[in-house]
Design goal:
Chain C: Its EC number is 2.3.1.234. The complex is a heterotrimer of chains A (about 325), B (about 200) and C (about 350). With about 200 residues, chain B is of the alpha+beta class. Helices cover about 40% and strands about 10% of the residues of chain B. In chain B, strands 1, 2, 3, 4 and 5 form a 5-stranded antiparallel sheet that branches. Chain B starts with a strand and ends with a helix. Chain C has about 350 residues and is of the alpha/beta class. Helices cover about 40% and strands about 20% of the residues of chain C. In chain C, strands 3-2-1-4-5 form a 5-stranded mixed sheet, with helices on both faces. Chain C has a 5-stranded mixed sheet with strand order 8-7-6-11-12, with helices on both faces. In chain C, strands 9-10 form a two-stranded antiparallel sheet. The two termini of chain C are about 25 Å apart. Classes of the chains: A alpha+beta (about 325), B alpha+beta (about 200), C alpha/beta (about 350). Chains A and B meet through β2, β3, α1, β4 and α3 of A and α2 and α7 of B.
Chain lengths: ~325, ~200, ~350
C-alpha cells in the first residue's frame, strides 16, 4: 500500500518537487540551482558585491524531523562544515572560503571556485591519451602519422597528468596532516582552479559564471559508483574557457564540499578517506589506478604518519566491508 | 561635502550602504562623545581605518549586521553598533569598540551609514559628515577598493590571530606553493579567513 | 506453480503457501500462518527456547496451512525455507523440517535469504517496481537498492539492529514484551511530548544505535515514580520527564536517522520510490516520516501491514518461487543454514531490469 500523506503521494507530480521557501534575505529570483541533493540545495548567486560569485548551500527544514531535532542537526552540521573550512584556510589549504552564513536559518555562503573537477579533467585526458588499462602508459597503437613527434608530445602531456596526481596527493596529505578528514573524497570533490588572469573585481557578471561540475555529495558519489561522467550543465562561458587539456591541468587543487568532514587524526578515518578516493579514481578508468598510486606515493611523503595511513588503507581495502556497496 | 560611495549588497537591495573616508581627523574625541551620548544624529559606524583590511572585510561585517538586525538576532542596540561588534572575533561589545571603533586619537577614519530608511540618501550623509568631521575627505573608490589603503596589516593579523596566513617565504609547506605572493594575495588570503571568522563568531 | 514457505529465523514461526499462476499474473496467497514465541517480561528470546517453540508448533502449523489453502501435497512444486540470516538453533529446526518434507514428498528444496524474502514480498504487495528498500527488523537495519541482479546494501547499522535497540530500550524502562516491545514503545510514544536529547549517529549512509542504549541506561535511572522527586529528570520548563517522553524521543531520533540515510540513498540512485519492510516497518510513525520525506522529494513511500512486514512464511515461499522459476534449487547436501547471509550475496536472476 502506498503510504498516506496529505495529498496523494502517487500523483504528487515532479513539478511540486523541491519547492522550498528560502530564508531571508534570499529569493529564488537571483539564484541558480546547481544541485538538489539529500543534504540540501546548492545555488549559485552573488555575495557582498555583485561581482563576487558564490555558492549558497541551504539545508531546508526536513518535514519528517521533529523541529527541535532538525534545528539542532542543521546548526551542528553547518557549523562543523564552516569550522573545518576556516581551519583549512588558516593553514593555507586550498578550500572555498566562508563568506557568510546563518546557522539558525540553515545557510552557508562559500567562495565560488572557478575551474573543473578532477573527474572531468581525467575523462578528457584519459580519452585524449588513450591510456592503456594495463599499465597506465599511453597506448602506442593509437599513435598518429609522425610517430616520434607524437610520442614526445604524449610523454610531455602524460607528465603533466602525473604532476596533477602529485598535487592531489599533496593536497589530501596536507588536509589529513592538519587533522581534517573530508568524509566524501571523490574525484568530483577535487577541483582544479582555473587560474584567473584578471582580478576578481573585473570578473564577468554572474550571467557568465555558469555552474560546472559542481554537485553534492550524493549525486557525485552515485555517478562515481556507476562510472558515469558528471551531468553536463548548460555552459554559456564555453568560449571564454580553454578546453585545451594542457591548460586544464595547470591550476591548484581545491577540495570542495566538506558537508561530511570531521576533525580527526585517526588513521582509520584517514584510510577510509583514501579508500573512497581510490574507488572514485578506479571507477573513472582502469588506467586511473596507476595515477592514484602516484598520488599515494606523494601522500606518503607529505606528513609524519602518512605511511602508517597507507598501511591502514591496505587493511581497509582487504576488509572491504564497503566493497559490495560501492562496487 | 564629503566624498561618499554607496554600495548595494546583493540580496539586501533595499538597504544601501554609504561609506566615507577621512584622514587627518582632528575631532575624533567629539565624534566619539556623540556616540557615547547616543545622539541619534550621529548614528554611524565610525571605524578605525587601520583595522579595515579590504572591502570584503568591511562588507561581510556590514552584511551580517544588516542581516542580524533584519532577522531580529542582533546582539547590540543598533545596526551600526552591530557592525562594529561583528568585526571583532570575540563576543565582547566594549572590546569591539576599543579595537575597531574610533578612539580620541584616531586620525584615519572610515564612516559607514547603513541606510535603513529611504530618506538616508548619499547626499544627506555627505553633507552631514562633511559638516561635522574635521578632516580631509578621501575617495573610498567606486567598489570601495581604497577602503584598505590605511590598513595596518600587522594589527589586523594580530587581531584575528593570522600568523603565517598568506605570508610568503616563511609560509609552511603547502601554503601558496606557487610563490610570488604579492601584497594583494596576502590580503586576499587573510580576508578569506577573516570573513569565515566573522561569520563563525559567537557560535 | 505452488510453493510452501517455512520461516523461523527469529521468534516468529511462519508457514505460507503461495501460487504463481503465470508470470504476468499477481501471486495468490493461499495461506499465511504465524505463531510467535513471547519471552517472559524483562527478558529477550534466547536461541534454545525459541528453537523449542518452533519444534513444538511447526508440524501443527504446516498441517493447518495446507488444510486452509485447500491444496493437495502433489500440487506443491517446491519447499522453501529460510537459509539465513538469523539465530542458528531456530533456523536449524526449520531447515530440518524442510529437508524431511522434501524427502518425504519428493519435492525440490530451496534455501531463501530472509532479507530478499522481505524485499520481494514488499514489492509484490505494494507494486513498487524499483524502490529503495529500508529493511528494519530485530536483527537487521539496511538501506538497499537494486542494481545489476543484486540487492546492494547502501547503508547499514555499524553496531546493533534497530529492532534490537528498541527492544533493549524497552527492557531498560521495564516496558512489557507482549505483544512485542516495539508495539508498546509506539503506544507509549503517542503519549509523550517532550523531546529529550539522544545521540544522533549518522555517518554517511550508515547509522549507529549503541550510543542510544548507553544514554537510555542513564536516563532510565532518572524517570518513573519509583525515583525520588529530586533525582528525577526535568525539562527546561521544569516538567517531569516520563517514560512516555523517552519513548517519544527514542522514536523521533532513531526513525529520523533511518529516514535520513534512506533519503541519501534515494538521491544517489535518483529513485522516487521507497519501500519499508521488516518488523519495525509496521511502526506508524516511521511510515509517516518516510511518506513525508518521499513527498518532499516528489516521490512516494510504500509499506506493508503486519501480515507481511512481520516475519512470515509467505515471503519465503514467494521469493523462493521467483528463484525456482529461474531453475535454481538447493541440493539436499547444500541445504544448510547460516547465521550471516548478506543480502547482496544473492544473485537475483529473476529480475532483468
Amino acid at each position: 500500500m502506498a503510504l498516506p500523506t496529505d495529498d496523494n503521494a502517487d500523483t504528487a507530480s515532479s513539478t511540486s518537487t523541491y519547492v522550498h521557501k528560502l530564508p531571508e534575505p534570499f529569493t529564488t529570483s537571483d539564484l541558480v540551482v546547481l544541485t538538489q541533493g539529500a543534504e540540501g540545495l546548492v545555488y549559485r548567486t552573488t555575495f557582498l558585491t555583485p561581482n563576487t560569485p558564490c555558492v549558497l548551500k541551504y539545508r531546508p527544514p526536513k518535514p519528517y524531523r521533529h523541529p527541535t531535532l532538525d534545528k539542532r542537526l542543521t546548526k551542528a552540521r553547518l557549523l562543523a562544515e564552516a569550522r573545518v573550512l576556516v581551519k583549512c584556510r588558516r593553514e593555507g589549504l586550498q578550500v572555498p572560503a566562508v563568506l557568510g552564513g546563518d546557522w539558525e536559518d540553515g545557510w552557508l555562503a562559500l567562495e565560488w571556485v572557478d575551474g573543473r573537477t578532477v573527474r572531468e579533467v581525467l575523462d578528457i585526458w584519459v580519452h585524449k591519451l588513450g591510456m592503456r588499462a594495463r599499465d597506465g602508459k599511453p597506448d602506442e597503437t593509437t599513435g598518429g602519422a609522425s610517430e616520434g613527434d607524437v610520442e614526445a608530445q604524449k610523454k610531455e602531456q602524460e607528465e603533466r597528468l602525473w604532476e596533477m596526481m602529485r598535487k592531489v596527493g599533496r593536497a589530501v596529505g596536507r588536509l589529513h596532516e592538519i587533522g581534517v578528514c573530508h568524509g566524501d573524497l571523490t574525484t568530483s570533490n577535487l577541483m582544479i582552479r582555473h587560474e584567473r588572469s584578471t582580478q576578481p573585481s573585473s570578473q564577468p557578471s554572474t550571467e557568465n559564471v555558469r555552474p560546472r561540475g559542481r554537485q553534492t555529495v550524493s549525486t557525485m558519489r552515485e555517478a562515481a559508483m556507476n562510472g558515469e561522467g558528471p551531468p553536463q550543465y548548460p555552459s554559456a562561458d564555453a568560449t571564454s574557457r580553454s578546453n585545451e587539456p594542457e591548460d586544464l591541468l595547470e591550476g591548484a587543487i581545491v577540495m570542495i564540499d566538506f558537508g561530511l568532514a570531521t576533525q580527526t587524526v585517526q588513521d582509520e578515518d584517514r584510510a577510509v578517506d583514501l579508500y573512497v578516493l581510490e574507488r572514485a579514481f578506479t571507477a573513472t578508468h582502469p588506467a586511473a589506478e596507476h595515477l592514484f598510486q602516484e598520488a599515494m606515493r606523494v601522500y606518503g611523503e607529505t606528513f609524519k604518519g602518512a605511511k602508517k595511513v597507507l598501511k591502514r588503507l591496505a587493511d581497509v581495502r582487504l576488509r572491504g566491508r564497503k566493497r559490495t556497496m560501492i562496487g | 561635502m564629503a566624498t561618499v560611495r554607496t554600495i548595494v549588497l546583493p540580496h539586501y537591495p533595499s538597504y544601501p550602504i554609504h561609506v566615507c573616508m577621512f584622514k587627518d581627523v582632528s575631532n575624533a574625541a567629539f565624534l566619539r562623545s556623540q556616540l557615547l551620548e547616543a545622539n541619534p544624529d550621529f548614528d554611524y559606524a565610525f571605524l578605525d581605518a587601520a583595522m579595515i583590511l579590504s572591502p570584503q572585510h568591511l562588507l561581510s561585517a556590514a552584511f551580517l549586521a544588516l542581516h542580524c538586525t533584519q532577522v531580529a538576532r542582533a546582539k547590540t542596540r543598533t545596526a551600526h553598533s552591530e557592525l562594529v561588534f561583528r568585526l571583532h572575533p570575540n563576543n565582547n561589545i566594549g572590546e569591539s569598540y576599543r579595537k575597531f571603533g574610533i578612539s580620541d586619537k584616531t586620525s584615519a577614519l572610515i564612516a559607514v551609514k547603513l541606510a535603513l530608511k529611504p530618506e538616508t540618501t548619499a547626499q544627506v550623509v555627505a553633507e552631514h559628515l562633511g559638516e561635522h568631521v574635521k578632516g580631509e575627505s578621501a575617495d573610498p573608490g567606486e567598489a570601495l577598493e581604497h577602503v584598505g589603503m590605511w590598513c595596518d596589516v600587522g594589527k589586523v593579523r594580530k587581531m584575528y590571530k593570522l600568523e603565517g596566513v598568506g605570508e610568503p617565504k616563511k609560509g609552511k609547506r603547502g601554503a601558496i606553493v606557487n610563490g610570488n605572493a604579492s601584497d594583494m594575495d596576502e590580503r586576499k588570503e587573510m580576508e578569506s579567513v577573516i570573513t569565515g571568522i566573522i561569520t563563525l563568531k559567537g557560535s | 506453480m505452488i510453493a510452501l514457505g517455512l520461516e523461523g529465523s527469529a521468534n516468529k514461526l511462519g508457514i505460507g503457501l503461495i501460487s504463481h499462476p503465470s508470470p504476468n499474473k499477481p501471486p495468490i496467497i493461499l495461506a499465511n500462518l504465524r505463531h510467535t514465541y513471547i519471552s517472559p517480561p524483562g527478558t529477550g528470546f534466547l536461541p534454545k527456547e525459541t528453537a523449542a517453540h518452533h519444534r513444538e508448533w511447526i508440524v501443527r502449523l504446516i498441517k493447518q496451512a495446507i488444510k486452509q489453502a485447500g491444496v493437495r501435497i502433489e500440487d506443491i512444486d517446491v519447499i522453501c525455507y529460510t537459509k539465513g540470516p538469523g539465530m542458528g538453533a531456530p533456523l536449524q529446526v526449520v531447515a530440518l523440517v524442510a529437508r524431511t518434507l522434501s524427502l518425504l514428498w519428493k519435492k525440490s528444496l530451496l534455501g531463501v535469504n530472509h532479507c530478499v524474502g522481505h524485499i520481494e514480498m514488499g514489492r509484490a504487495i505494494t507494486h513498487a517496481t524499483n524502490p529503495i528498500v529500508l529493511y528494519v527488523s530485530g536483527g537487521n537495519t539496511q538501506v538497499i537498492a537494486y542494481s545489476e541482479n543484486r540487492y546492494r546494501i547502501f547503508g547499514e547499522t555499524m553496531d546493533i539492529a534497530i529492532g534490537n535497540c528498541i527492544d533493549r530500550f524497552a527492557r531498560t524502562l521495564m516496558i512489557p514484551n507482549d505483544p512485542f516491545p516495539g508495539y508498546n514503545v509506539e503506544q507509549y510514544a503517542k503519549r509523550g511530548k517532550n523531546l529529550i536529547e539522544l545521540p544522533y549517529a549518522v555517518k554517511g549512509m550508515d547509522v549507529s544505535f549503541s550510543g542510544i542504549l548507553a544514554a537510555a541506561d542513564l536516563l532510565a535511572a532518572q524517570v518513573g515514580d519509583t525515583v525520588a522527586e529530586d533525582k528525577r529528570l526535568k525539562t527546561e520548563e521544569g516538567e517531569l520527564v516520563t517514560k512516555e517522553d523517552l519513548c517519544f524521543s527514542l522514536q523521533e531520533t532513531i526513525y529520523a536517522m533511518l529516514v535520513e540515510i534512506t533519503e541519501r540513498a534515494m538521491a544517489h540512485v535518483g529513485s522516487k520510490q521507497v519501500l519499508v519492510v521488516g518488523g519495525v516497518g509496521s511502526n506508524l510513525r516511521l511510515q509517516e516520516m518516510m511518506a513525508l520525506m518521499a513527498r518532499d522529494r516528489g516521490g512516494s513511500g510504500f509499506a506493508t501491514d503486519d501480515r507481511y512486514c512481520i516475519d512470515n512464511g509467505i515471503m519465503i515461499a514467494h521469493a523462493g518461487l521467483l528463484e525456482f522459476s529461474t531453475r535454481v534449487t538447493t541440493p539436499l547436501e547444500e541445504s544448510t543454514v547460516t547465521q550471516r547471509f548478506r543480502t547482496d550475496d544473492v544473485y537475483v536472476g529473476w529480475r532483468n531490469d
